[in-house]
């Protein structure tokens, strides 16, 4: 068994089953569609349920796939064991009422042991079967598995309750005595037991019963095959890796993390756990975000948030203090690009999401980890074994540490956490009120502390960016309502404010707070809505603040103006998309930053460059038309009569704001906008991509950023014009076309010369006809450019009818090519080129096939070409 890359192993698995009549099913999105029972796609069979339950009939009943999957039920084991992962790939072959045990077992053994495929040593393979499944045992024996390599295990019955169920066979690989972690007489020291020596690599489920609601089992009318082979495990065998993490699926991530930390993997056991967790989680979040999931406080979003935070915390353990996780996204993309090219295509967007989430958490992580270290030290010094619930809650409420992260961190130090005490604290403060770290996530769960604050507060930012006299009504600092704030972070509520609170995709305003003497006393970092609707300002306190004192609140006008432009652009873009794609197109999310805007919209199918040009053109037409932008506040029914578009089925109050861009765009919106479209200056789409099934994403820029974007592209065009020697920039396309035509002509000349040389090289070959049994044959290794030239020679040979069989080989770089042709007369007599090519291709470490009269093969061993010809002549002589 030779060392193979993960991409080679994955493709070999799929190719094998494709050769057995299976259709390759692409890896589905990790986000399940039309399956509310699943948070994530968690196995290969999860995407096949529609076929197995009969709701959808597949075009072909034989299917195979490599399915990316996520499971987080045992996340605490990741990094501590050799094979636990949050994201993994499951290779599988499936039969929907077609073949059953005999074929599944025969093909499994062929794939694993055939020299053409995985080429595993049969002596290292062990099989477990359900004791009552005598058929499976019989078929395993029939393919050559020794009786002492087949073990009956009572647990080998796949059953998840009501629905299809049946016995299964698990295949184990013996990694050798060096992996043995148990005593010889340990009851778990056998294939199928809990040990490190015998590694389970494949599970084949024979679905033959229907588990009925009354607990009985009845035979299924259509029996199914469902198999699962963990790619990461198999790769570890091929690459002789101690654990899954020392394979090409993870090592590039670990090596990259080494550059961030300055530490080396395999130097320290505790450090190694951190490296493994980071590598594992980087893969999971990259794929999850690429499939359309985003960090949030619930569901899939919480899983992503939790994984990012765990990875960041383990980065801290390695001494990484700055954001780093997002830099691993392109590394994941490079590792997986052979089968998942979409990761690299979306790497910038994915990295941006990760970096944003990571940076927000990093703002308080250093302080939190430092506090946790102090808590652990004090706990140990007091000879206590548990971190108090109050301390665990403080970490959660102030620093954003989920309880499970604190528990894991404590566990690494040999301590526990008082979970009951934590729950008591949570009951007293049902929702968090962190003393703000500028993390919008902290506002996702509010606390009784904030709920009890009912001070009126009025937002005037639609018309005023500076408020000279605003009374500070409430201060929250260090988890308490206080009358004065010292330096540090705090949350403030004023009776009147010009600062916009983040909502509807528009980011919060930033700016300053000054006292009566003009001194800057605080910097506004973030603004969110408090439970009772007030704008809650998260600030960095620079000078003491006191309630009931008057301050001047000043929004950063440049920041605000850029956000306004981009927000109005999203309204124009929203309507332009409907103009181009139809009324079915709806907004699916947006982000309005000062430097760019992001707009997600529902649309099934691809978006062409021509489509984007139309959309972009429409938006710019509206900008150049200098359309007034007006805002009115009215009741919801009147707004609907105006034709205002409501988004996301949001719940609206009695009064709503309606933003109208002339009569072109009318939408419900609580955000800030320009007074006239001409303020946008220019609109430019910079990227478009898919972020999930039926959801597309556009990123765009306006104003100065749009100008800078165009200038950079103009410079690229001018540089290209110089390189192709175009006199004027406008001549560049014609010049490029001329160069392409010239290249095409030169390529044709080269091909013609190669054909001529091939024919000259073959002149003597066709004169050397040999006899092999009842067949005349020409067999030789010649120097030509590749398979195309061999096929040309085969055409010439056929026209000249020189012999019954033609066998030619050539070397191209480090690869070997073989071609076999058989005359029509001998094909009719039963001789097939495909049979002959399969018999000789093994000499070049390759495989191939083709039609009865022409077959070809490629391989990695050019040195075996001459022996392949000898084998070919011997094979013919025996016929």
UniProtKB/TrEMBL annotation:
Zn(2+) binds at residues 567, 571, 669, 673. Its EC number is 6.1.1.7. It is found in: Cytoplasm. GO terms for biological process: alanyl-tRNA aminoacylation. Residues 4-712 form the Alanyl-transfer RNA synthetases family profile domain. It is an enzyme of class 6 (ligase). It catalyses: tRNA(Ala) + L-alanine + ATP = L-alanyl-tRNA(Ala) + AMP + diphosphate. GO terms for cellular component: cytosol. Keywords: Aminoacyl-tRNA synthetase, ATP-binding, Coiled coil, Cytoplasm, Ligase, Metal-binding, Nucleotide-binding, Protein biosynthesis, RNA-binding, tRNA-binding, Zinc. The keyword Signal does not apply. Belongs to the class-II aminoacyl-tRNA synthetase family. Consists of three domains; the N-terminal catalytic domain, the editing domain and the C-terminal C-Ala domain. The editing domain removes incorrectly charged amino acids, while the C-Ala domain, along with tRNA(Ala), serves as a bridge to cooperatively bring together the editing and aminoacylation centers thus stimulating deacylation of misacylated tRNAs. HAMAP family: Ala_tRNA_synth_B (MF_00036_B). This is Alanine--tRNA ligase. It comes from Pediococcus parvulus.
């Amino acid at each position: 068994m030779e060392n193979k890359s993960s991409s080679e192993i994955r493709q070999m698995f799929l190719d094998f089953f494709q050769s057995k009549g299976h259709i390759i099913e692409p890896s589905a999105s990790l986000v399940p569609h039309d399956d509310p029972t699943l948070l994530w796609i968690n196995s290969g069979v999860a995407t096949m349920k529609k076929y197995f339950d009969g709701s959808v009939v597949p075009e072909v009943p034989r299917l195979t796939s490599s399915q990316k999957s996520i499971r987080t039920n045992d996340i605490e084991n990741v990094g501590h064991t050799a094979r636990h992962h949050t994201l993994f790939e499951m290779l599988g072959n499936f039969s929907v009422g077609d073949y059953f045990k005999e074929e599944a077992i025969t093909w499994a053994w062929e794939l694993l042991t055939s020299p053409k495929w995985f080429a595993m040593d049969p002596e290292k393979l062990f099989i477990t079967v359900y004791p009552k499944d005598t058929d499976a045992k019989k078929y395993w024996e029939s393919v050559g598995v020794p009786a002492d390599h087949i073990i009956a295990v009572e647990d080998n019955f796949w059953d998840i309750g009501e629905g299809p169920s049946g016995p299964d066979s698990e295949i184990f690989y013996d990694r050798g005595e060096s992996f043995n972690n148990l005593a010889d007489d340990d009851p778990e020291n056998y294939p199928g037991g809990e040990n490190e020596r015998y590694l389970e690599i494949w599970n084949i489920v024979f679905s033959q019963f229907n588990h009925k609601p009354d607990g009985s089992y009845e035979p299924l009318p259509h029996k199914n095959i469902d198999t699962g082979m963990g790619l990461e495990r198999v790769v570890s065998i091929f690459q002789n890796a101690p654990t899954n993490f020392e394979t090409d699926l993870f090592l590039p991530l670990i090596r990259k993390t080494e550059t961030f930390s300055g530490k080396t993997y395999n130097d320290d056991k505790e450090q190694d756990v951190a490296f493994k967790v980071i590598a594992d989680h980087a893969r999971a979040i990259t794929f999850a975000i690429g499939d359309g999931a985003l960090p949030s406080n619930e569901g899939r979003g919480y899983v992503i948030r939790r994984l990012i935070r765990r990875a960041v915390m383990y980065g801290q353990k390695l001494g990484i203090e700055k954001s780093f996780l997002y830099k691993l996204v392109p590394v994941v993309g490079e590792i997986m690009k052979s089968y998942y090219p979409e990761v690299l295509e979306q790497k910038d967007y994915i990295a941006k999401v990760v970096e944003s989430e990571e940076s927000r958490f990093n703002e308080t992580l250093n302080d939190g980890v430092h506090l946790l270290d102090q808590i652990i030290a004090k706990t140990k010094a007091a000879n206590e074994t548990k971190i108090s619930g109050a301390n665990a809650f403080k970490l959660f409420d102030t620093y954003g540490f989920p309880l499970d992260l604190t528990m894991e961190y404590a566990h690494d130090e040999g301590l526990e956490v008082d979970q009951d005490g934590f729950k008591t604290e949570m009951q007293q403060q049902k929702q968090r009120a962190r003393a703000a770290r500028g993390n919008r996530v902290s506002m996702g769960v509010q606390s009784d502390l904030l709920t009890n604050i009912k001070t009126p507060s009025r937002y005037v930012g639609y018309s005023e960016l500076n408020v000279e006299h605003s009374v500070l009504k409430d201060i929250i600092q260090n988890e308490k309502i206080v009358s004065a704030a010292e330096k540090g972070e705090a949350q403030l509520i004023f009776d009147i404010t010009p600062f916009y609170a983040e909502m509807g995709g528009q980011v919060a305003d930033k700016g300053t707070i000054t006292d009566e003497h003009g001194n800057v006393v605080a910097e506004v970092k973030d603004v969110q809505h408090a439970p009772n609707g007030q704008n809650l300002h998260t600030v960095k306190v620079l000078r003491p603040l006191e309630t009931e004192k008057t301050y001047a609140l000043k929004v950063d006008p440049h920041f605000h103006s850029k956000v306004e432009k981009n927000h109005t652009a999203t309204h124009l873009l929203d309507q332009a998309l409907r103009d181009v794609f139809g009324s079915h197109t709806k907004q699916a999310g947006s982000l309005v930053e000062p430097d760019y805007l992001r707009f997600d919209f529902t649309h099934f199918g691809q978006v062409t460059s021509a489509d984007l040009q139309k959309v972009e053109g429409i938006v710019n037409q509206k900008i150049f038309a200098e359309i007034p932008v007006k805002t009115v506040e009215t009741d919801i029914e009147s707004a609907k009569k105006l034709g205002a578009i409501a988004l996301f089925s949001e719940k609206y109050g009695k009064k709503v704001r309606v933003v109208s861009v002339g009569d072109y765009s009318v939408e419900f919106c609580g955000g800030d906008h320009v007074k006239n479209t001409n303020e946008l200056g220019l609109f430019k789409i910079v990227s478009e991509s898919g972020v999930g099934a039926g959801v597309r994403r556009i990123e765009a820029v306006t104003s100065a950023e749009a100008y800078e974007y165009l200038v950079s592209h103009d410079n690229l065009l001018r540089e290209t014009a110089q390189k192709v020697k175009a006199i004027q920039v406008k001549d560049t396309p014609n010049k490029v076309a001329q160069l392409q035509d010239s290249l095409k002509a030169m390529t044709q000349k080269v091909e013609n010369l190669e054909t001529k040389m091939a024919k000259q090289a073959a002149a003597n070959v066709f004169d050397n006809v040999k006899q092999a049994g009842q067949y005349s044959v020409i067999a030789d290794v010649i120097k030509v450019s590749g398979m195309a030239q061999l096929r040309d020679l085969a055409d010439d040979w056929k026209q000249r009818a020189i012999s019954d069989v033609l066998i030619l080989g050539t070397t191209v770089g480090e690869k070997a090519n073989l071609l076999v042709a058989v005359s029509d007369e001998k094909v009719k007599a039963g001789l097939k080129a495909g049979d002959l090519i399969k018999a000789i291709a093994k000499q070049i470490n390759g495989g191939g096939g083709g039609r009865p009269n022409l077959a070809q093969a490629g391989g990695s061993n050019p040195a075996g070409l001459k022996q392949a010809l000898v084998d070919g002549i011997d094979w013919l002589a025996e016929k």
